[in-house]
Every structure is written in structure tokens, then in C-alpha cells.
Design goal:
436 residues, Cytochrome Bc1 Complex, Chain C, 16 helices, 60% helix, globular
Length: 436
């Protein structure tokens, strides 16, 4: 996309097309001849895996929409009919439902890789922000898709989440009614969610195009965090990374297939096989696993409005992350202190997910008993501690570490890191080199 193109049309038709619509040149420069750092590890294969996940979700979703009925009286039955009467409907539905979980699994690994290797730092701020936009769109699409089967958990999940908007001052009430299309979650809500659930994946595809464009301007980050300095630091994307990504995609699809064929319902909730009943509330309302950390943050705050603000702030803080991290070294491979704080951050994220799945009043750590009842630290308090660390990591730890941390020596170039050369001129001084 940027830089000098190395594409040379070989046939008359290619030359004719290239002079009028250089689409082949665009594809060649982006995915074949694109110079890529030669030291990318397997954490960098999740970009390709995510592309496959998006295509699988769009294709399977289009076919499922041909059989789904977005009406509260028929939605649940139409999903059951897809499972039982439509040719390979059970397979399509299992692929689409488990595909959402696989999509989020891959995107979380992709994001944590970006956090660890500093892929959000200059000059990749726009690339990172577009990634967060994709993540937000994915959450919206997943939530609306979860409501469509019109099961008990999806109905009450929609009731809880949409009611959150009512906590906003002044606009909360009208906004909630506008979302519902009436005075409660009903047929109009289901129609709107179905329409938006169909639309958003195409918006994601558009933003993914911008994300790839923004990637190809500064080029890939890499495990050292050092910028490309010469042709010795790079390899053409094809065949080196097409083969590597292809191998990783095949392994990922094997794991995907295990869930589709052997455990199709293990990532969902049993209550969603019960038709929605507005008169019966489930004993414990929980969202899908990939939204649990934010659900735990929401419940950790006694105030409803405070919980809503903190939940959205947990995602909003990612937008300004490039300006919160003051370190001039990108990769945590050379940041000994930051690496430990990052490990605790990952543990905090997993812990929040665990807290979100549990009843907040259940005991996490028993410390004794009183009047025959166990006492101790509840999941609510654990979630509060982890929420505190989540925000402290972004707002306190990363800004301060840049001033107090002494990074390890870094290789002089990407090629040196691959061939094991000794530290170069960048490492001779006490002060770390600029982030480039």
C-alpha cells in the first residue's frame, strides 16, 4: 500500500487491467511482496486467524439468516428448526455459535500480544485505535446475536444490558425506549437487533480494511520492538509468512472443529435451550464468557451509573493507551519490571472473568463462620480488587514505569536478534534508545 511497488504485470491482460484498476498490484503489494520483519513469532499469526474467523462468521451468518425468523413468536422455534430440519443446519449453527467464541479467543490473544510487544506505540497509534473500534463492533455484534435465539438467558441478558442505558442522566430513559422500540424488550427490539447483527459484520470488514491499510504504512511491529532498518531485517510475506500463517490457521481450525463436533454447547448456557419467558427470571444471569470481565467490573461498583461508566471506561482507556505508556522501549521483552506487571494484568483479566461467572455474594476465600454461615472474602470484593488493578495498570503503572524502569540491552537490528549478534550501539548507553 505504501512505498515502492515491486509488482510487474506479466501478461497483456494484467498490464491492461493494471493501467485501469490496479487491484492486483494492491493485493500483491499487501500480501505477497510486502516486506515483513524476519523475526515474527507465532503470536503474529492471529491476524490471519482473525481474518478467517470473520469470513466464517459472515458466510455462516448469511446462510442462517435465510432460515431464521425475527419474531418473538417464531424465533425460538425457527432456531430449533434450523437444528433439526434444515440440511446441515446443526452444523451451520454450531459453526456460527462456536465461531463467535473462537473469534473472541483469537482477538484477545491478538490484543494481549499487542500490549506485551508495545504494538500500540508510535507510529502505530491509528492502527491500534482501529483495532479497538473493531473490538467494540465485535462486542455489539456478539451481544445482539446472543439475543436472537430468544432463549431465557439471552432474553434476560438483553433486559439487563439495555436497562443499563437507563442509568445515564437525562437521556437514559428515552435512549432505552428507543433501543427497545417500546416499553420493554419485545418484538421491535428483536427486529432491530437482527437488522444490526446482520449489518455490523460488514462494518467490521470495512474497518478491518482500514486496519490492514494502517498496518502497511509503518509496517509490522516485531518481538524486539526495533524498527526495520535495512533489507536484511525483512522477508517477503509470501511464501515465508503465508506458509507459517497457513500452518497456524490449520491448527486453530482443528481446535475449532473439536468444539463444533464434540462440544457444541459447552461454551453456551443451558438456559438458552428454554424459550424466553418474561414472567420467570433465571436464578443467575450471566453473559457469554468473552464479556464476563466487563460484567464483573459493572457489578463491582455499588452505584448503577458508576458501574456503567466504569464498564465503558475499561474499554475507553484502550483508546488512549498509546499516550499513557511513557516508556521509549516498545517490547516488554526488554522491560523487566513491565513484564511482571503485565503478567499480573493478565491474571487480573482472567480473575475478573471468573468473578463475572460467579454469584457476587458467594465466598471466594472462607475465613471462618458466624451463626452457622461461612464468612470470608466474596467474589464481589475480589472483583473490586481486580478492577482497581485493571485501571491502575493503565493509569498509574504504565505512565510511571517509563520514568523509573531501566530496560535491558537491545540488539542493534532485527537481523542481529535473529542471528544472535551481540548488542549494538543502541545498548552501549544507560539511557534506552528512542522508540523509533
Amino acid at each position: 500500500m505504501s512505498g515502492h511497488s515491486t509488482y510487474e504485470p506479466k501478461t497483456g491482460f494484467e498490464r491492461w487491467l493494471d493501467e485501469r484498476l490496479p487491484i492486483v498490484r494492491l493485493g500483491y503489494d499487501s500480501f505477497v511482496g510486502f516486506p515483513t520483519p524476519r523475526n515474527l513469532n507465532y503470536w503474529w499469526t492471529f491476524g490471519g486467524i482473525l481474518t478467517v474467523c470473520l469470513m466464517v462468521q459472515i458466510v455462516s451468518g448469511i446462510v442462517l439468516a435465510m432460515h431464521y425468523v425475527p419474531h418473538v413468536d417464531y424465533a425460538f422455534a425457527s432456531v430449533e428448526r434450523i437444528d433439526r430440519d434444515v440440511n446441515y443446519g446443526w452444523l451451520l449453527r454450531s459453526i456460527h455459535a462456536n465461531g463467535a467464541s473462537m473469534f473472541f479467543l483469537a482477538v484477545y490473544i491478538h490484543m494481549f500480544r499487542g500490549l506485551y510487544y508495545g504494538s500500540y506505540k508510535s507510529p502505530r497509534e491509528v492502527l491500534w485505535i482501529l483495532g479497538v473500534v473493531i473490538y467494540l463492533l465485535m462486542m455489539a455484534a456478539a451481544f445482539m446475536g446472543y439475543v436472537l435465539p430468544w432463549g431465557q438467558m439471552s432474553y434476560w441478558g438483553a433486559m439487563v444490558i439495555t436497562n443499563l442505558f437507563g442509568a445515564l442522566p437525562l437521556i437514559g430513559g428515552p435512549l432505552t425506549e428507543w433501543l427497545w422500540g417500546g416499553f420493554t424488550v419485545g418484538n421491535e427490539t428483536l427486529n432491530r437487533f437482527f437488522s444490526l447483527h446482520y449489518l455490523i459484520p460488514f462494518l467490521i470488514a470495512g474497518v478491518v480494511g482500514l486496519h490492514i491499510w494502517a498496518l502497511h504504512v509503518p509496517g509490522n511491529n516485531n518481538p524486539t520492538g526495533i524498527s526495520v532498518k535495512s533489507s536484511k531485517d525483512t522477508l517477503p510475506f509470501h511464501p515465508y509468512y503465508t506458509v507459517k500463517d497457513g500452518f497456524a490457521i490449520m491448527l486453530f481450525l482443528v481446535i475449532f472443529a473439536f468444539f463444533v463436533f464434540y462440544a457444541p454447547d459447552v461454551l453456551g448456557h443451558a438456559d438458552n435451550y428454554i424459550e424466553a419467558d418474561p414472567l420467570v427470571t433465571p436464578a443467575h444471569i450471566v453473559p457469554e464468557w468473552y464479556l464476563l470481565p466487563f460484567y464483573a467490573i459493572l457489578r463491582a461498583v455499588p452505584s448503577k451509573l458508576g458501574g456503567v461508566i466504569l464498564m465503558f471506561a475499561a474499554i475507553g482507556v484502550l483508546f488512549v493507551l498509546p499516550w499513557l505508556d511513557t516508556s521509549k522501549v516498545r517490547s516488554m521483552r526488554y522491560r523487566p519490571l513491565a513484564r511482571w506487571f503485565f503478567i499480573f494484568f493478565v491474571i487480573a483479566g482472567l480473575g475478573l472473568g471468573w468473578c463475572g461467572a460467579k454469584n457476587p455474594d458467594d465466598i471466594f476465600l472462607p475465613l471462618g463462620s458466624h451463626d452457622g454461615h461461612a464468612t470470608g472474602i466474596t467474589f464481589l470484593w475480589l472483583a473490586r480488587v481486580l478492577t482497581l488493578y485493571y485501571f491502575a495498570y493503565f493509569l498509574v503503572i504504565l505512565p510511571l514505569l517509563g520514568f523509573v524502569e531501566k530496560p535491558k540491552p537491545r540488539p542493534a537490528s532485527i537481523a542481529d536478534s535473529v542471528h544472535g549478534a551481540k548488542a549494538g550501539p543502541q545498548d552501549s548507553g544507560v539511557k534506552p534508545a528512542p522508540a523509533e
